[in-house]
């Protein structure tokens, strides 16, 4: 089977852009967040003690079943390197380390208030299309939406907690944090660090002609444009649409920016 690695981290932080860039390399397969992490969770739940027949399933069998899921899901993929994307992989970094001893996790991160801002922009842009992010509810305010995504089970809150768990875990050496700010202002440096981290030969990416289309998925989710990737990688300067007090609430949440909070020396680019 191909070598397996993962893209994880925070939402609205460049994971789809990164996948669109990596797939330019004919040796790589990458895409937006997919179903595999959820399927792994469903399998583990069905093989747990809640199943009356779990007495007949040991850990070795569980690992083989989950590994078989990867093998079969990507059976038709001819790439040498597969990079699967899900915010859940940070939460499962220990399990993936057992399944794939050489696997690495690229975690995309971004200054947190700008993540909230980006989500709110998508919602306001699609005012007549309720989003799956909020269970298709058309109500709420910018404050209730921010509280919802930042909550423990929210789009951002879950991913943030999973990232922190991986960052401080014994598997932190498998983790590379790619800041959205670096990816959009200096993509060559970000990609160089990624290839070195994965132990793969460098590839000349075209950051002026990037292509990725998830139109059908986004429309079905009630969030047209959610995974839109601009054809040219560039940082876009803009003012926030968040109220000042709401923006300030999340300003100090980028723990990875403080070297004193990085005791395991996680690589950050």
UniProtKB/TrEMBL annotation:
Keywords: Transferase. The keyword Transferase applies. This is Sulfotransferase family protein. GO terms for molecular function: transferase activity. Pfam families: Sulfotransfer_3 (PF13469). Its EC number is 2.8.2.-. It comes from Rhodanobacter ginsenosidimutans. SUPFAM superfamilies: P-loop containing nucleoside triphosphate hydrolases.
């Amino acid at each position: 089977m191909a070598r397996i690695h993962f893209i994880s981290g925070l939402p609205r932080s460049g994971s789809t852009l990164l996948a669109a860039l990596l797939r330019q390399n004919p040796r790589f397969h990458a895409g937006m967040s997919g179903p595999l992490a959820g399927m792994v969770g469903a399998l583990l739940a069905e093989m747990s003690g809640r199943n009356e027949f779990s007495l007949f399933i040991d850990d070795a069998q569980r690992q083989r079943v989950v590994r078989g899921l990867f093998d079969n899901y990507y059976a038709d993929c001819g790439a040498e390197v597969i990079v699967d994307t899900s915010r859940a992989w940070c939460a499962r970094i220990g399990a993936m380390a057992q399944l794939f001893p050489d696997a690495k996790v690229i975690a995309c991160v971004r200054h947190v208030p700008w993540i909230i801002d980006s989500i709110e922009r998508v919602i306001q842009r699609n005012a007549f299309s309720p989003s799956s992010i909020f269970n298709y509810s058309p109500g709420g305010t910018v404050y209730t939406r921010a509280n919802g995504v930042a909550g423990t089970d929210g789009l951002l809150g879950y991913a943030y907690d999973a990232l922190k768990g991986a960052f401080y875990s014994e598997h932190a050496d498998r983790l590379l944090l790619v800041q959205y700010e670096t990816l959009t202002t200096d993509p060559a440096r970000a990609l160089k660090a990624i290839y070195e981290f994965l132990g793969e030969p460098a590839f000349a990416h075209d950051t002026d002609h990037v292509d990725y289309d998830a139109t059908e998925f986004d429309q079905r989710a009630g969030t047209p444009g959610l995974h839109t990737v601009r054809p040219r990688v560039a940082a876009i300067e803009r003012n926030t649409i968040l109220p000042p007090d709401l923006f300030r609430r999340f300003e100090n949440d980028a723990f990875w920016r403080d070297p004193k909070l990085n005791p395991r020396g996680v690589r950050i680019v």
